[in-house]
Design goal:
By secondary structure, the protein is mainly α. The protein folds into 4 domains: 4-90, no CATH class; 101-223, no CATH class; 224-242 and 260-308; 338-409, Serine Threonine Protein Phosphatase 5, Tetratricopeptide repeat, CATH 1.25.40. It is 70% helix and 0% strand. Helix 6 (119-129) crosses helix 9, helix 9 (175-194) runs parallel beside helix 11 and helix 14 (310-323) runs antiparallel to helix 15 (327-341). It starts with a helix and ends with a helix.
Length: 409
């Protein structure tokens, strides 16, 4: 990849959401915003190699995208719609009153997470519009086909347009019921950054994890007494604290058991633990994100993997399963059960999930590790092969290949 292409890719990571959000506010149309932003980046790829990268790449892209949007609206406008066209071109409307949060990207998130949309549509649309993820990346996050995901996002944008859903932060009265959808979005954005699935991307995308943390902090300022907001922020911080130790110098994923715990970020761990202690002191029953954060708190409390309190982790997963009886939670619980009751008990629990998780790489990776521990090497190799075929993260694939090849040796 040339230096200019690398620059465009970097600016896309840092500026996409801001550009789309600004266009959405000005023109009130997500299709116009997304397509104009995409055209601006395409123009940059054409012009910058010859003209050079401008001093302010973000400003150049914003100006170019705005012109692209205006050109499109002019083409689509009817002849008698001159007043509307002039208003868009000169942007002389008075500024919108400041809402609960003065951040364009949060306004865009709340628009994409409107309750008129199905939950999956809200999350997928926001991953595309705010996170800048590609269709393949979003499809992998949902374990669905790329074409199906594209149709889902197209329908969501059409519904926003047809229903005239406003581009604004909700009122204080509406905020509580709107936050859960935003948290789901931030959780998936963070997860994609933590274990990136895009071809040609870094295995860990710090731009996405940092943006998810930043937005979670803003939501925390909005809802300081919301336990799940605090729980999600704590979960992100405790996970992000381990980032430096997760990928080796050769680009291979490092398992939790093998990580250098001295490389973990003590400041982020302390902040995450403090948030959880505050929630525990409130006496309110924990929700899903708080329980996930508590599991991570147990892991980050252990100085050595041998000091991990697996019985507490299994108990937390039991509680979590009552709130969220999903196969993913059951799979993660089985990993902890293997440490407490042995791999044979865990494997029986994992095998019961095959019908629901047969297309999920982590299911086969977990089976491979359990079969390995039981000495069933041939079956373990087959499971590793299946996991490698399904995995999208380069560092994870490298780890799985090494584990498989050790058995062949």
């Amino acid at each position: 990849m040339s230096a200019v292409h690398e620059t465009v890719a970097r600016v896309h990571r840092t500026e996409w959401a801001r550009i789309v959000a600004g266009l959405a506010r000005r023109f009130g149309d997500l299709d116009v915003a997304e397509e104009a932003a995409a055209e601006a980046f395409a123009t940059a790829l054409e012009r910058w190699p010859a003209d050079g990268v401008p001093p302010g790449p973000g400003a150049w892209l914003t100006t170019t995208a705005t012109r692209k949007a205006i050109d499109r609206i002019r083409r689509e406008s009817r002849r008698d719609d001159k007043q509307r066209e002039a208003r868009i071109v000169y942007d002389d409307d008075p500024p919108e009153p400041i809402g609960a949060v003065d951040d364009e990207r949060l306004r865009l998130i709340f628009t994409c997470c409107h309750p008129a949309l199905a939950m999956e549509a809200r999350v997928a649309l926001t991953l595309r519009m705010v996170g800048g993820l590609s269709m393949p990346e979003i499809a992998r996050a949902f374990l669905v086909q790329e074409t199906a995901m594209g149709q889902r996002i197209t329908r969501a944008k059409a519904k926003i347009k047809a229903a005239r859903i406003p581009y604004r932060v909700p009122s204080a009265e509406d905020l509580p019921r709107r936050v859960s959808g935003v948290l789901a979005v931030l959780f998936l954005v963070f997860n994609e950054g933590y274990l990136a699935t895009g071809a040609g991307t870094d295995p860990v995308r710090q731009d996405l994890t940092a943006e998810a943390v930043r937005l979670a902090r803003l939501i925390r300022g909005l809802r300081p007494d919301d336990g799940e907001v605090a729980g999600l922020l704590a979960l992100m911080l405790l996970t992000e604290a381990r980032r430096a130790a997760r990928v080796s110098a050769t680009g291979e994923l490092v398992s939790l058991a093998e990580q250098d715990r001295g490389a973990w970020d003590a400041g982020l761990i302390a902040e995450g633990h403090r948030l959880l202690r505050e929630r525990l002191a409130s006496g309110v029953a924990p929700g899903r994100y708080q329980l996930l954060a508590a599991i991570n708190a147990v892991h980050t409390s252990a100085r050595d993997v041998r000091d991990t309190d697996w019985s507490q982790i299994v108990a937390l997963y039991d509680h979590l399963l009552r709130l969220d009886p999903s196969p993913i939670v059951a799979l993660n619980r089985a990993v902890a059960v293997a440490e407490l009751d042995g791999p044979e008990v865990a494997l029986a629990a994992v095998d019961r999930l095959e019908e629901r998780l047969g297309g999920y790489h982590a299911f086969h990776a977990t089976r491979a590790e359990l079969l390995r521990r039981l000495g069933r090497s041939e079956q373990a190799r087959d499971a590793y092969d299946r996991a490698i075929d399904l995995a999208g993260n380069t560092a994870e694939t490298a780890y799985l290949r090494r584990r498989r090849d050790q058995l062949r040796g």
